[in-house]
Amino acid sequence: MGRDNIAARPYNSALMLSHILRRLLAAVPMLLAISIASFLLLHLLPGDPTAVLLGQEATPEAMAQVREELGLNRPLHIQYIDFLGNVLRGDFGRSFFSGRPVADELVMRVPATIELALAAMIIASIVGISLGVLASVKPRSVVDFACLGIALIGVSMPIFWLGFLAQQMMAGKLGLLPFGGRYNAANWQGFEPDTGFFIAEAIFTYGSPELTLELLHHLTLPAFVLATVPTALIARMTRANMLEVLSQDYIRTARAKGLAMTPVVIRHAMRNALIPVITSIGTQFGYMLGGAVLTETIFSWPGLGTYVVQAVIILDGKPLQASVLLIATFFVVVNLLTDISYSIIDPRLRHKGAG
Amino acid sequence: MTRLLWLAAFAALVLGVSACGGGNSGLKKVGAGKSILVLRSDKSDNLDPHSTSSGGDVRVLSMMYEHLVSASVGTAEVVWEKKGLAEDWTISADHTVYTFKIKKGIKFHDGADLDAHAVKKSLDRMVVENHPARPTERPYRDSYFKDIKSVETTDDTTVVVTHKSPNPRFLGTLGIHSAMIISPLAIEHLATLKVEERKAWITSNPAGTGPYTIKGGYKDGTDITLVAFDGYHGGAPKVEQIVFQTQTDMRTRTQRVLAGDVHFIDSLDPPDWESIEKNPKVTLYTWQGQNLCYLAMNCLPSDGHITSNRDVREAIALAIDRQPFVAKFAGRAKPQHVLIPPTMLGHPKGYRPKADSTPRAEALERARKLVKDAGAEGKELKMYLPDTARPYLLYPDEVANFIQQQLAEVGLKVVLDKAPLAQLTERVNKGEYPLVLIGWMGDTGEPHNFWGPLLSGVDGKPAGNNNTRFYHADVAKKVDAAGVETDLKKRAELYYELEKWVHDEFRPMVPLVSAEQSYAWVSNLKGVEVDSTGTFRFHKAYFED
What we know:
The complex is a heterodimer of chains A (about 350) and B (about 550). Chain A is an all-alpha fold. Chain A has 15 helices and 1 strand. Chain A has a single domain, classed as MetI-like (MetI-like fold, Orthogonal Bundle), CATH 1.10.3720.10. Chains A and B meet through helix 2, helix 3, helix 5, helix 7 and strand 1 of A and helix 1, strand 1, strand 2, helix 4 and helix 7 of B.
């Protein structure tokens, strides 16, 4: 027989809720462990933060004074409790170098990365799924080989090289897209957004279609470059799953009943084949939120990735600590959401134990 | 088709919302020629002039703050001129008392008036040990301001600075960013804040007398927008705003200025200079920087490295061939054999230590013998190199590889250790490195700024930046004596003597090159001013049609 008609079974909402709650509870110790690890990171960094802060002319007296002012001479567990309390209040301390609250800097940096990652993920999902489906419908055809070839190039081409080439071609030779940056700041006066969600700010706070288009124009090239690897992965995964699903009996039955190929692929095959692809999209998105260091560097994109790299270079402990905490939390949250969405989408998980 | 219609409707909605939303936000498009986009290699984190030590910060600060003195424009050597906030000054015969006459009618960005009391207030923030408005760190205080006994005002326009001992270097000190003048109102406000909040506050609320300022606060270290200060005493700038963006890749910066996508860039790759010079779209500006790239050799016996043996250091000096380093700069760097760079006071023109004058074949043979006799053959030497390019060391990896190969020829095995610059001092002071590949940038044209931190020390110990760990009481005494000599000719002589003595007698370092530095800007941008310290300013800049 083909697949069990599980979709027809009654929906077990209590089971779902307990599944979600279990997942949420499991995330708490994970987040605590992350907080301890990121707290200890500051103490494991090479070099005395006060020496880093005071630079090359630090005297022992000046270092002692700064240590006192920053509370670095208190017992470790007290420092951790303070740290945790502060983090829960959204206070990540101050950058040693800029003296600014790290939270203020992250409010600008994290949204920049989210905008870029979101755009890249939308591109990767649309292009990747389309390529995968096209390839699977006509396996071993020219279309299939072309799609596989594109996917192979996407996975194997180093991002910095691709980014450089794309920049040379689209910005340098053709002049179609900008070299980098989030927008041409020299063109505008009075754009002082409170957060790094520039596109949302341009639309809702400033109401400027022209600035919105300029922001989208600047986002295009880095988003396409960042999307290459996930596009390739999604395309390959979609193709493999589609091929498996298309060989199932119920597809053959649907075709035998006289249904056209397109509705069969869209309504029947894709729905089943895309479930693991969605998990993969979630994981890829989690990676991207960690900051796409190379893409951000090539395109002068002031996101989380370049922020972390800069913090490592100058050994600025608090920004590094906050970024590690945030990136790890992103992963946990994205995984959690993927897990939950997976159980909502996949009826087998929804009804597990009910049949 | 229906889906496409939905998509179009969504796009129309977004643009519609953006067209209707906001409105009173003050956002406006700047016309062509009203804005300069600077694409630079570094970024700015801390715009408190008294607290920063970063070149990236200083580039931005120089647009917003001014000094009592002003560096000359168009001279190779730095000359301090009366074009700053002081219209005149007198110096006592023994160089302990400096009396400044402050210009009248100048306003700070926050509306405060500039007068002698404002200058005293600003200088005191660097001079007074526990000043109520001090930032968490004042990295230049010990070297430059600790020697000041008092800063007094005798009337509204006169400031008197008295030193504990003769200080012929003080005009140069007033030219560094730590002596930029901050508004008295801002300093009063800073005193009400917690110490760790102060530099962030002044970063967002600059209060200088310069032609540009930050409007609406400081958002992020990578993009900084400065707007013209209409009340600037030198006349309102023609260019309304300056935007600083960061791009660490040298080639991308160059391409963008060639494409006209940005207006001004720093630090170009020397092999590109020749073609850029011929390009009518771009103006290239180069100058011999006050910088030195050198190889420091650990001289301190208690650190336990073989480089504490003078013969090994001599062998290393003999083994080094500077030609590949100069070639990396496409010839736009001068081979260096002494500490002081070529355009500065105290540079003994044409002088070379004996080891550097030895013919190559003979030098290698002698070096091998010295290494063998010292029992150092095949010994490993850990060498620090910075993980980012510096103006005097654009390719740290390649230069380190050259050194590795050259020392291998005489039987020494160099192990490379690449690490952030921020770690260097602490690790050097722990005695970790026998060799350090690094450099030094001067900013005031003052030789004491090289001898004091790099080859001297205090209280019987090497100074904080002395990567050679070399300390010799007589050398330190002579460095101090040269630092307080008020006769320029005699000062230069004292520095010549030091160069001729220290390298031959002790050989603590191998000076490698002194590099030219560069800026480029689009050709229709006129009136850019670059002074003799390499600081660029735009207050007279404009775009030609």
